[in-house]
């Protein structure tokens, strides 16, 4: 994971800069950390930063979000450049994911974030493509990039003492010449750094002396809270995390008072569209995240101003000698008429043969996508059984399986429930397991254990099942090839449901709500909006106006178990029940 720091003081968000202009703008001296204070071009510089992930924001709204950040007094923005190497046939990297190196997991011996040869080979391929792109955009070349982060929170992983020096050298040798940083929480500071690189810290509360600890570890250096967590992300079946604006502002003020620099993570969270929500594994418990990355940030998921934004704007204005820019207007929203479901396609009618195998094959090792494996979505495994009894996953279902006998639903196996009794029956019957990749863990020690699908034996009465027919259901654009049918009175599940949204005039942002539905995925004009799940907390899906068109828009819902006859639209999001992360700090323990 590479994080870039862009200085908005020297870069106009609404101006395209050509290569000759960049050369003429070349500055003498970039960001320096040679004393207690940062300097930029030799002058004192306080970082008032904000994080935004462009891959979580529709491209049409990039400028809007950046102008809103600048109007708040943010002078530096940070963003990740994703390491997404899961589809080499489309190029060496693909800017769609914060961190998902799943195609590398085809190697059963892979050790991510180490100097394991298979991983460093991928790193070098990535840097060989990426660094030539960002090199002319560095500050010393006249561009806006003032710093580059070597890795992110490596102290939480730290399996290889040679890895961080390797990444540092890989950056320097390719021409990265701006200030290098690392970023860790308090515990990670002990082993997440690398010689010659400035350490920074991540936190939300000041109760543990974290900043003082950073100063002790790194004397006579400027202090930067690299990730000041303005809120927190959400996981399915729990509450929406909020951080009251007044409590947040009090901590930010305390951080800034002694001259510490700050970067708000997130300033604008956006949306993890598609299957890119990810997961966490706190204390060994797997928890898939929701698609909304609202984060209770100063700018909401849809780019709205919040109380946090207004309070921060008032505070940050005190650190600027000139008046801040005017606040841009908000994007208009629209509540469309409900979409009536008109067509249906059973999952069983949409299957396309993939593979036969005596043993289960995990998703990443399926011979699909030019033999690069399956990255996301669902995988269906079918075999023949001749009796009922105790079905046990041996914790080899990653992450959740709907179980069917002769295509009738009989139960669920997942990261919580590992066994149940299959009903008895006569003769041979088809056992089907529809396994969903609910999201890969992107933090901590579990990174190497993120293969999905069936990753080992499933046993019936203690006997491993054999001879599987396997179907890839990654649900990429145009994945449905079968003929749609009218919706029957009792549609079969799982299934696909289609309706048309008619947009009269210019399309506007909206939110989709699915009352009466259970769990699945929503697609609009071929774009994967993300998962819906009635257990919450997320109750709505953000639908950006630029993803719509005037006239008819196709909406497809993949539904696992229960459907209504329509979809409805609302003006504002519903994040479900809330919990205060400041009162209950266990929510942010890593």
Characterization of this structure:
Helix 4 links the parallel strand 7 and strand 8. The C terminus is likely disordered. Helices cover 13% and strands 30% of the residues. The chain is globular and about 80 Å long. The chain has 590 residues and is of the alpha+beta class. Strands 15, 28, 29, 30, 31, 32, 33, 34 and 35 form a nine-stranded antiparallel β-sheet that branches. GO terms for molecular function: beta-galactosidase activity. It catalyses: Hydrolysis of terminal non-reducing beta-D-galactose residues in beta-D-galactosides.
Radius of gyration: 25 Å
Shape: globular
Biggest sheet overview: 9 strands, antiparallel
DSSP, total strands: 36
Instruction: Give the count of helical stretches.
Output: 7
Query: Uncertain runs with pLDDT below 50, 5 residues or more?
Result: 9-25, 85-99, 586-590
| N-end to C-end Cα span | 18 Å
Q: Looking at the chains present, what oligomeric state does this protein adopt?
A: single chain
- Work out the helicity level: 10-25%
| Residue-averaged pLDDT | 91
Q: What structural class do the secondary elements suggest?
A: alpha+beta
Strand fraction equals 25-35%
């Amino acid at each position: 994971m590479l994080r870039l720091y862009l200085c908005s003081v020297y870069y106009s968000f609404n101006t395209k800069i050509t290569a000759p202009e960049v050369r003429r703008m070349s500055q003498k001296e970039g960001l320096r950390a040679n004393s207690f204070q940062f300097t930029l071009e030799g002058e004192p510089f306080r970082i008032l930063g904000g994080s935004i992930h462009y891959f979580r924001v529709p491209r049409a709204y990039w400028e809007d979000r950046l102008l809103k950040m600048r109007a708040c007094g943010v002078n530096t923005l940070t963003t990740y450049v994703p390491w997404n190497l899961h589809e080499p046939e489309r190029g060496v990297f693909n800017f769609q994911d914060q961190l998902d190196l799943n195609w590398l997991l085809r190697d059963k011996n892979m050790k991510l974030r180490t100097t394991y040869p298979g991983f460093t080979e991928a790193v070098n391929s990535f840097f060989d493509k990426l660094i030539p792109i960002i090199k002319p955009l560095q500050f010393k070349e006249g561009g806006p990039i003032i710093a580059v982060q070597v890795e992110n929170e490596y102290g939480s992983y730290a399996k290889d003492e040679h890895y961080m020096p390797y990444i540092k050298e890989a950056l320097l040798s390719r021409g990265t010449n701006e200030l290098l940083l690392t970023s860790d929480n308090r515990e990670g500071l002990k082993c997440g750094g690398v010689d010659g690189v400035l350490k920074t810290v991540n936190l939300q509360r000041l109760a543990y002396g974290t900043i003082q600890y950073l100063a002790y570890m790194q004397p006579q250096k400027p202090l930067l809270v690299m990730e000041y967590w303005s809120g927190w992300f959400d996981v399915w079946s729990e509450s929406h995390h909020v951080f009251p604006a007044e409590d947040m502002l009090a901590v930010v003020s305390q951080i800034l008072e002694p001259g510490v620099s700050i970067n708000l993570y997130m300033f604008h969270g956006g949306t993890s569209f598609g299957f890119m929500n990810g997961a966490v594994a706190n204390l060994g418990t797997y928890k898939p995240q929701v698609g909304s990355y609202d984060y209770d940030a100063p700018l909401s998921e849809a780019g709205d101003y919040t109380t946090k934004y207004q309070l921060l704007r008032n505070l940050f204005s005190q650190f600027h000698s000139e008046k801040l820019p005017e606040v841009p207007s908000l994007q208009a929203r629209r509540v469309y008429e409900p979409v009536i479901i008109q067509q249906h396609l059973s999952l069983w009618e949409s299957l396309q043969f993939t593979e036969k195998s005596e043993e289960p094959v995990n998703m990443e090792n399926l011979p699909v996508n030019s033999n690069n494996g399956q990255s996301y979505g669902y995988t269906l495994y079918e075999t023949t059984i001749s009796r009922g009894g105790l079905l046990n996953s041996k914790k080899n279902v990653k992450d959740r399986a709907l179980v069917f006998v002769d295509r009738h639903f009989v139960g669920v196996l997942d990261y919580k429930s590992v066994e149940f009794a299959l009903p008895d029956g006569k003769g041979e019957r088809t056992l089907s397991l529809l396994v969903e990749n609910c999201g890969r863990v992107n933090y901590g020690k579990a990174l190497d254990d993120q293969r999905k699908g069936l990753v080992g034996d499933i046993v019936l009465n203690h006997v491993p099942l054999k001879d599987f027919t396997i179907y890839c259901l990654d649900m990429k654009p145009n994945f449905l090839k079968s003929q749609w049918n009218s919706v029957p009175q009792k549609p079969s599940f799982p299934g696909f449901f289609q309706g048309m949204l008619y947009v009269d005039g210019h399309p506007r942002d909206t939110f989709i709500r699915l009352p009466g539905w259970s769990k699945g995925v929503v697609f609009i004009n071929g774009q994967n909006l993300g998962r819906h799940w009635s257990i919450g907390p997320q109750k709505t899906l953000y639908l950006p106006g630029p993803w719509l068109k005037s006239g008819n828009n196709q909406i497809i819902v993949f539904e696992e178990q229960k459907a209504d006859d329509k979809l409805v639209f609302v003006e504002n999001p519903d994040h479900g029940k809330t919990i205060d992360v400041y009162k209950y700090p266990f929510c942010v323990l890593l």
